[in-house]
Specification:
By secondary structure, this protein is α+β, with helices and mostly antiparallel strands. The chain has 3 domains: about 350 residues, no CATH class; about 70 residues, no CATH class; about 160 residues, Sandwich (Jelly Rolls), CATH 2.60.120. It is built from 16 helices and 22 strands. The strands form 5 sheets. It has a 7-stranded antiparallel beta sheet with strand order 1-7-6-5-4-3-2, with no helix packed on it.
Length: about 600
């Protein structure tokens, strides 16, 4: 799973986030007051404009302070009834139709069918729920204003803030029900789609004997099911498991009854999981074995993964903290994702060999290497046992205990090397981790649906806010525009950081003027420009242009950043800190949109 930035702890995140939120809110409030004063000044003069703006702010704040929960709930029920009258539940039939025919288009023989099915269900649910809530929220209030039905509400003791909040809550309640139904059906669809088993015929299992004739185990293969089969290895006691194919494996159990031996394959493991990873920090050694700040670039525009050269002293070293015998009594369950860059094709089916060693960060004592073959596009597992062989200076070997001799003050190093010359391993910091436990997949699926729920709340709040001062189609266009701009928020923030720090690895290509220059001159974004006075001036101007873009982008909500489907599809437990941060961010935006909508509706003379 790609994790470009570490997820901060909620306690460390909330302080700076709250300061940024208050600063942005104050900036927007001052800007809105200035615009209102200018408009009023044109109509009534500067002194009267200041008085009208001041009184309008006081009246609006008093309106918000006097809201009644009973009236808000009554208006929310009206919004729900209005949604039902518009046959909003038809979307459930559309979702059922999508589920019925999804099997025609989803390939169960893909590299990782679990990721495929989960990504499809999450995307379909997110799209339908947000789209329905968007249409409801942007057309409801303008339709009432156009037909003057809003007058039947405003003539009663109802405040404008209650109208706005009631509609937000009503449409959000409709979206919540739709999400609950779609989420439950989607979960059942995914579980049913990936569930399968294999038959193991006794004739396909062969006995393995030692030189003295004793049986040491069995090996064989399973039947073909869902377009794949597994190789299996059994120990002398008849227990074992298959290899990993399409992101999963099966446990194999030997059953002997009536003098006949049969083999039973368990359910797939590895497809629908919620791993709890313990991640470390990454550093590199170059091909001479010297410390390096980064690995080798192979020319890829996306520099998330760095590469180490095979057949040399180049290595990637992860340092893990907090390693205790209590958490890992059987050894270190290491899991890894290794990408391969080939300089020549070779035997494409053979794979590229590598090794992993564990090392004491204080004494340098390291275990003998554990050899493996890189499995691209899937997670590979290695269990580093408690008892490790260590080659001594005289060429002999001795056994050491990993917690007594290798782990130092809870810290241990894992060293990765590529063994084949002229081939490269690509890795990132998040690609190696220790499996510290497992969560519930159902619970993880629910947490992923919370990300969709947050996006739905923002959509409802945005739609209602724009509908307070725009016509339905215009409000729809405005909401879609804000959502679209928000999708580029993270990119603009990284681009500004890259421009200010001068680190083109963050976002290659530069700002708008530099990008235009590269397009005209057909210069690759991976090449650094010569530091001529013209280039320096161009980069300086880009920095001034990106500053307001960075400030403006921070004001727009990013619905994509609220999604956690990558964690779910990748089989990783969604961190609670991340959910808490998304919840607070969503609440902040909803409050801001509500206040803006209430003031805008207050400014309209809806009763006239």
């Amino acid at each position: 799973m790609v994790l470009e930035e570490e997820i901060p702890k909620f306690t460390a995140w909330i302080g700076p986030a709250l300061i940024s939120y208050l600063f942005a809110a104050g900036l927007v409030a001052v800007f809105a007051a200035a615009v209102a004063w200018l408009v009023q000044a044109v109509l009534y003069g500067p002194l009267a404009a200041g008085d009208r703006v001041y009184r309008g702010v006081l009246t609006g704040l008093a309106d918000l302070a006097g809201m009644s929960p009973r009236r808000i709930w009554a208006l929310a029920r009206l919004a729900i009834q209005e949604s039902l009258r518009r046959n909003v539940l038809v979307v459930l039939g559309l979702f059922a139709l999508i589920i019925l025919f999804a099997g025609w288009f989803l390939d169960p023989t893909s590299v990782n069918p679990g990721r495929l099915y989960l990504g499809f269900i999450q995307s379909a649910t997110n799209l339908l729920v947000c789209l329905v809530v968007l249409v409801l929220s942007v057309f409801s209030l303008p339709a009432d204003i156009k037909t003057k039905a809003i007058q039947t509400v405003t003539t009663k003791p109802v405040r404008t803030g209650e109208i706005v909040l009631g509609r937000m809550l009503g449409f959000a309640a409709v979206g919540t029900v739709l999400l609950a139904v779609m989420g439950g059906v989607g979960w059942a669809f995914v579980v049913r789609s990936v569930r399968h088993s294999h038959e193991v015929v006794a004739d396909d299992v062969f006995e393995i004997k030692a030189e003295d004739g004793t049986t040491t185990g069995w090996e064989g293969r399973t039947s073909l099911d869902r377009g794949h089969r597994h190789r299996l290895e059994l120990a002398a006691d008849g227990s074992g498991r298959t290899d990993t194919v399409q992101g999963h494996r099966h446990q194999i159990r030997t059953v002997t009854a009536g003098g006949r031996t049969a083999y039973e394959a368990g359910p797939p493991e590895g497809l629908l999981e919620a791993r709890k990873p313990l991640r470390g920090t990454l550093r590199f050694l170059d091909r001479e074995g010297r410390p390096s700040t980064k690995g080798i670039s192979v020319g890829a525009e996306w520099s998330y993964r760095q590469y180490i050269e095979g057949g040399s002293l180049a290595a990637a070293i992860w340092t893990f903290d907090g390693i205790t015998e209590r958490e890992f009594p059987d050894g270190l369950p290491l899991e890894m994702i290794v990408r391969v860059f080939r300089t020549y094709k070779g035997d494409i089916e053979k794979g590229i060999a590598g090794s992993v060693r564990v090392r004491n960060p204080s004494t340098g004592l390291q275990g003998d290497p554990v050899y493996f073959t890189a499995k691209e596009f899937t997670i590979d597992s290695l269990l580093i046992p408690r008892e490790l062989p260590v080659t001594t200076a005289d060429g002999g070997t001795r056994q050491v205990d990993i917690f007594t001799d290798i782990v130092s003050n809870g810290r241990v190093e894992v060293v990765l090397q590529c063994l084949e010359p002229a081939q490269y391993y690509g890795i990132a910091q998040a690609d190696f981790y220790l499996r510290a436990g497992d969560g519930s997949f159902a619970g993880n699926y629910f947490k992923s649906c919370l990300g969709i729920w947050f996006a739905m709340l923002l959509t409802a709040a945005l739609g209602v806010m724009f509908s307070t001062f725009l016509a339905g189609p215009v409000a729809l266009l405005a909401t879609l525009s804000v959502v679209l701009i928000g999708q580029f928020r993270e990119f603009i923030l990284r681009l500004f950081e890259s421009q200010v720090t001068g680190d083109s690895k963050i976002v290659p290509g530069g700002g708008p003027i530099e990008s235009l220059y590269r397009i005209v001159t057909q210069t690759s974004i991976t090449l650094d420009l010569d530091p001529t006075p013209a280039v320096t001036a161009m980069k300086t101007l880009d920095t001034f242009l990106l500053a307001p873009m960075r400030l403006g982008a921070a004001l727009f909500p990013s619905l994509s950043s609220l999604g956690t489907s990558d964690f779910l599809a990748g089989g990783f437990d969604i961190p609670s800190d991340l959910l808490a941060e998304h919840a607070v961010e969503t609440l902040g935006y909803v409050i801001a949109f509500f206040i803006v909508g209430a003031f805008c509706l207050k400014a309209r003379e809806v009763a006239s």
